[in-house]
Amino acid sequence: MSKTRPDYILLDHTADLGVRIRGTSPADLFENACKTLDYIIFGSVPPAEKPCSRKISLSGNDLADLMVRWLSEILYLFDGEHLVVANADIHTLSTTELKATLTTTPFEPDYHEALREIKAVTYHGIKVTREKGIWTAEVIFDL
Amino acid sequence: MEIRLKKIDNNRWMIPKTGNMRVPGLVFSSPQLIEAVQQDQSLIQVANVATLPGIVKQSLAMPDIHRGYGFPIGGVAAFRMEDGIISPGGVGYDINCGCRLMTTSLKAHDIKPYIKELISALFKNIPVGVGSKGTLHLTPRDEAQVALEGASWVINKGFGQSEDLERTEDHGVIEGADPSVLSERAVKRGLDQLGTLGSGNHFLEVQVVDHVYDSAIADKFNLFEGQVTIFLHTGSRGFGHQICDDFLKQMTGADFLKGLQLPDRQLACAPLKSDVGRRYLSAMACAANYAWANRQILMHLTRETFIRSLSVSPNELDMTLLYDVCHNIAKEEVHRVEGEDILLCVHRKGATRSLPPKHPLLPSIYYHTGQPVLIPGDMGTYSYVLAGTQGAMEQSFGSSCHGAGRTLSRSKAIKMAKGRSIHRELEDKGIFVQSKGKQTLREEIPEAYKDVSQVVEVVHKTGLAKKVARLRPLGVIKG
Fold this sequence. Notes:
A: 2 helices, 25% helix, B: eight-stranded mixed sheet, globular
């Protein structure tokens, strides 16, 4: 996962925050989604000052469900374990299963300046589609 | 999907029953407000809620309606216990997000010379912003007790007085909480967030009573013009978010949903009588009780800060809880349907309970006035105190609106705030603001919200609650 700005745009939503994320493959899309969450919370992908590795394994009903579960996992690590994800490598991705290795770093409020709080990743309007070789996801976050 | 609204009168619009809708929709609004409502997809969400099993009468929208996720914000829907559903998304991630209003004996001119110092002290003493931790770090066993006992647990630890419970919806505890149904993650997220304000639209505001509309009720509420009040808005923090998330994921993909053809995955739900439905209600009660404990601690921290910062005695300050209401909740309540009193599960997603005088659930102090209904505005305008009315029981399952309601998306608000100093603009109006998040003030600019006065006017005119007093901000802290 590179540190450059991921391919995403903000969608209009009155109360919450929606994003449309793009990727060249499902794995690229999911890695971009992780990076997009970092950008929304911190404005960039935070450097891994004290890196730690964590393997995760998720299952879902379909790719859209997996996307919600994937982003919820990253959000939980931040809010529940005070860990910021600095890198995500996806090893396995099918329509119902995802395996990845995350590089995390401890959240330090004075160092990682948060722009906003994300309460949750919603299922509202969730979409994962492929058109002309480009994978796209639309996700709405509850703020 | 195109929604055709049928105007009933100047404050009510019907969404006729079409397609899979089991009941019609009813929107409380005004000619000024309805135009924006028609543009943000929230009416589709009102119609979507009307497709859920067991819904009775109508799928309702309060005048602060705006687009949410699944249910609209400002949505109210009641379901029969026998064949109805419970929807975690219909309660929201921030379970028992709510408001608390405190009165004082101070007058605005007593604190105006010190308002900047007071706001700075509140900002320092009250944990705000992303990742903030409460002063009270809980053990898992403590947290289970908070989940069972709610506000009374923290009062027993010295955060307030037992009289506060009478002035809290449901006395600060919903029955039926069962910590054994909580996930390890929910428990973990709750351990260090009790006594924190949070971020986004959550706030603590120091205000002055700017106008009294109903002096008889205002007297009973101990409100008078020129008086300093404090308004708190927050909820169950990560604890509640995780509970909603856990149960949505359990319900998504369940066999029950396969036959329903849900128009939105966020409407995932379960029969009220099912095992997962009952477990969600037990977990939701845990989060609701946590939220009441959270606001109780924040009130205590506020009281201490006022005493220290203004060098006043507790008696001189006389900071008293007026009321605490929740606006994201599902409750089992008795309501009259087709001439019969029946037990229903009422979902309020961004809607405040509004009980009329002499309702059996009212505490004795408000038995003759009706329940205080607390409606916050945006940080640049007014908040309102109203009193519950019989009209709410007849039209909205005893519900009213919960705020101004957003009208601009956050990205549009940020664009509109570009190049402006929101701090200075508010200071020019005599409102001192301190906020943690860089984007918070820009996303929360006054123009991002509907005119709360127009929203409250609809509530008053339709008899969902009646106006008692208007509150003007003097200072605000935000996450």
